[in-house]
Write a structure and sequence with these properties.
The complex is a heterodimer. Chain A is mainly alpha-helical. Chain A is built from 14 helices and four strands. Chain A has a single domain, classed as Up-down Bundle (Formate dehydrogenase/DMSO reductase fold). In chain B, helix 7 packs across helix 8. The chains are: A mainly alpha, B mainly alpha. Chains A and B meet through helix 3, helix 4, helix 5, strand 2 and helix 14 of A and helix 2, helix 3 and helix 14 of B.
Chain lengths: ~325, ~475
């Protein structure tokens, strides 16, 4: 029996993208919420709560992109030109917010400018990622081994919806991260924001879930026909259960729980996306077996992944452990 | 609406532009990470305050430069897909795994330990902190290993076969990774990074010695940097020569472009020192040449016959004026570095290393020389590979994405605006940090340094001298 490497790699890439989404998600979320925290001391605390780890968070994005080129080169070659404008916008957003982490400490006079770059870059990157997701879901015009659409095909009402949804989701992750990592007035503020953002995120999950089956008959078929429904029904049920737990955690002010529960909401939404898309990597045109790199390329990398990913997770966890606990004003790293 | 450039030219311009900006930062941070590891090791070993002060001084600079390297690097890793999807589809199965290994073995290592390196000294203690610094330094070198392997494979492809879809597929991973030009390119680039950093450190040291010859930190950094220039510049010249011989063997047409050999020379080729290459006329105009010297350098034989571009179809020529000139700029910088190394050795022997104004002026002027040499060297090797992305096998025109020129043109314009504003600000902050003299009790990016680094006494200060 031969092992189906394409499926293993689909899970690895999906895992890398998910780790990216949750890890960079909360630090992008902090940027999204930045305009709501005009106080300079608050901003310093917010920045310091992620300064030691943001670079590692972003590395998962490089693994997602680089890994896809390696394991599914055809999908990478089709998706990137199709998502051209959102990708460029995301990269530019990431540049602005990435440099802001260091630059804002290097200048008093221009500090506000880099705070603006941090917020604006985070908004742009999050919106672009959400739009890219919507553009993939709604389908991409492929001929032969190439993208065959125009450079504005990605822009639809649906992709705007997924873009806004991701901004809201990241903002919720950011707010619950602040609940976890700060205290005092800053934490109170974050609690209040988390309430609003949770309802906004539930609305977003609902809207995307309702709109998706209308994009393609295959999506509706996947979710609502028997026996699929036995496997798909637990997803919305679990979303409801996590939501109840999250509401309770927010009401009872259990600082550590909202962040973890929001991660679970993300995981469930992500599983929902996976159910809709599988086994396609470019929906309705290229499946993971068609896109897969030759067996020996996937095998060569699998050896490395099997050893290195656990190692990476270990020392990443150590770095988070070193900087554990609440961040307090005046006790920053800078 | 008609566009003056086609999409492929614009995509090439975008790659050249974003790559040139990007390479500056890793070239500096590879060397600086190793320098920081050495400084911290010296501090742990000798307990001399001057080393931890210098460590913190350069750590702040490293943090800014590293951040700019990361964000400009993410752009590169996505550009293969956005602008070069033909290349990504065809070479993904071989180039992709090399880059995936770079991410897994290098980027994560650097990123995972960077936070502790920058902010964690008092949280984890000196020994674990040194481990973090070491991991970041090793990460930069592993990164150089994989990315130069991938680049070298594009220059001298080996260990591959081609499948039914026209994709390159690995036949032998070891041959593919250790392809013929890789060892030479790796050595040449890592030495270049070390020299680049040494020249920056030397220039900063010289700048502060200019104002205060007795500043302990400035003396130590200047002396260390000048040792690097003295020892590594000659090694780099030898490594570059060997790299050139390797190129002659595997990419002879690139050498024809570099040397400006339009015509074949059956009985000994000249070395053109300077001149104006004219592709239209197929010759070097106003050439200053040393007869037979080209054959002597490349073949170690005055009369060795050398083929010229007249034996190569016109559509396979690299852009001769660019390769010709960028190569000469690189070599010129290398010779100047060698000169600086010798001058400093002489001053050291005379006991005027910290006093010689002329030496300090020379070192300050040489501050950017490493960057200029690195850029010129990369321009030489990359344009010399043209008109192919995978040398001799995949043409650049077949590598591009199916995009309209306005799409590539607007993204190029966007990157140009963003890079010039963001990186200009970053370089300003770097120069501002460098303009501060290193001082006792220097604080790192963390404001919570151990108490022992603060409140230094004059007695310790004199030991540091």
């Amino acid at each position: 029996m031969t092992i189906d490497l394409a499926i293993i790699w689909a899970f690895i890439i999906a895992f890398a993208v998910f780790v990216y989404v949750v890890m960079d998600g909360f630090d992008l979320g902090l940027g999204i919420l930045f305009p709501l925290f005009p106080n300079k001391a608050d901003r310093d605390v917010i920045m310091n709560s992620v300064a030691p780890v943001w670079d590692g968070n972003e590395t998962w994005l490089v693994l997602g992109g680089g890994g896809m080129m390696a394991a599914f080169p055809l999908a990478y070659a089709v998706l990137m030109p199709a998502l051209y404008t959102p990708m460029i916008a995301m990269l530019i957003g990431l540049i602005f917010r990435g440099v802001a982490f260091e630059f804002r400490w290097r200048t008093e006079a221009e500090k506000n400018r880099w705070d603006l770059a941090f917020a604006g870059g985070s908004w742009l990157a999050a919106l672009a990622q959400g739009i890219a997701l919507g553009a993939i879901l709604q389908g991409i015009h492929v001929e032969g081994r190439q993208y065959a659409g125009g450079w504005w095909d990605w822009l639809t009402a649906f992709s705007i919806l997924t873009g806004v949804s991701l901004v809201v989701g990241y903002a919720l992750l950011g707010a619950t991260w602040l609940v976890l990592k700060t205290d005092g007035a800053l934490r109170e503020r974050a609690y209040r924001l988390a309430w609003y953002l949770l309802f906004a995120m539930l609305a977003a999950i609902g809207a995307v879930s309702i709109a998706t089956p209308f994009l393609h008959i295959q999506y509706a078929h996947r979710w609502f026909t028997f026996p699929n429904v036995i496997l798909t029904a637990p997803v919305p049920i679990a979303v409801a259960a996590v939501t109840v737990a999250l509401l309770r955690a927010l009401a009872n002010r259990l600082d550590a729980q909202p962040f973890v529960l929001t991660l679970m909401l993300f995981a469930l939404s992500y599983a929902g996306l996976g159910i809709s898309m599988f086994p396609y990597i470019v929906p309705q045109s290229i499946d993971i077996w068609q896109a897969a790199a030759p067996r020996n390329s996937q095998l060569f990398m699998l050896a490395g992944v099997a050893v290195l990913i656990p190692l990476i997770l270990t020392y990443t966890a150590w770095a988070y452990w070193v900087f554990r606990g609440k961040v307090r004003p005046g006790h920053g790293y800078h | 609406m008609s566009w003056p450039f086609d999409a492929v030219d614009l995509a090439r311009a975008q790659f050249a532009f974003t790559m040139s900006f990007h390479i500056i930062f890793p070239a500096f941070s590879i060397g600086l990470a190793s320098y920081l590891a050495v400084l911290e090791a010296l501090w742990l070993w000798t307990s001399r305050e001057v080393f931890i002060n210098l460590f913190n001084y350069w750590l702040k600079i490293f943090a800014v430069a590293f951040g700019m390297g990361v964000v400009s690097g993410i752009v590169m890793s996505y550009q293969f897909g956005t602008n070069w999807s033909g290349f990504a589809d065809k070479t993904g199965p071989v180039i992709g795994p090399l880059m995936a290994y770079e991410v897994l073995t290098a980027f994560f290592l650097e990123a995972g330990f960077l936070g502790v390196m920058l902010f964690g000294l008092e949280r984890v203690g000196p020994k674990l902190h040194f481990l973090a610094t070491l991991m970041v330094a090793i990460g930069t070198l592993i990164s150089a290993f994989w990315i130069l392997s991938a680049n070298s494979w594009m220059q001298t492809p080996a260990g591959y076969s081609v499948n039914a879809d026209g994709q390159f597929v690995a036949a032998d991973w070891l041959k593919l990774i250790f392809n013929p030009s890789f060892p030479y390119r790796l050595v040449h680039m890592v030495l270049a990074a070390y020299l680049t950093t040494a020249l920056v450190v030397g220039a900063v040291g010289a700048f502060h010695l200019w104002r205060d010859q007795h500043l302990a930190g400035a003396r130590v950094m200047f002396s260390m940097a000048m040792w690097m220039a003295t020892l590594v510049a000659p090694v780099q010249i030898i490594a570059g020569d060997q790299h050139g011989l390797n190129t002659l063997r595997y990419q002879p047409v690139k050498i024809m472009g570099i040397e400006g050999h339009f015509q074949s020379h059956p009985d000994g080729a000249p070395l053109y020192l300077f001149g104006l290459p004219s592709e239209a006329e197929g010759k070097i105009k106003y050439a200053i040449e040393i007869p037979k010297m080209g054959s002597l350098i490349l073949e170690h034989d005055l009369d060795a016959p050398m083929k010229g571009l007249d034996t190569v179809p016109r559509e396979n020529w690299p852009p001769v004026p660019i390769t010709f000139w960028s190569f000469r700029i690189m070599v010129g910088m290398g010779l100047l570095m060698f000169g600086l190394g010798l001058f400093s050795l002489w001053a050291r022997w005379r006991g005027t290393l910290y006093q010689s104004r002329l030496l300090h002026l020379f070192a300050m002027l040489m501050g950017p020389a490493g960057f200029i040499a690195v850029l010129a060297g990369w321009i030489t090797t990359e344009t010399g590979r043209q008109p192919f992305t995978v040398y001799g096998l995949l043409r650049t025109a077949e590598s591009a994405s199916p995009l309209a020129a306005p799409a590539v043109g607007s993204s190029l314009a966007a990157f140009a605006i963003v890079y010039f504003t963001v990186f200009a600000a970053g370089v300003t902050y770097l120069l501002r940090l460098m303009a501060q003299p290193p001082h006792p009790g220097e604080a790192g990016p963390s404001s919570e340094l151990p108490a022992r680094a603060a409140g230094i006494t004059p007695a310790i200060e004199s030991v540091a001298r």
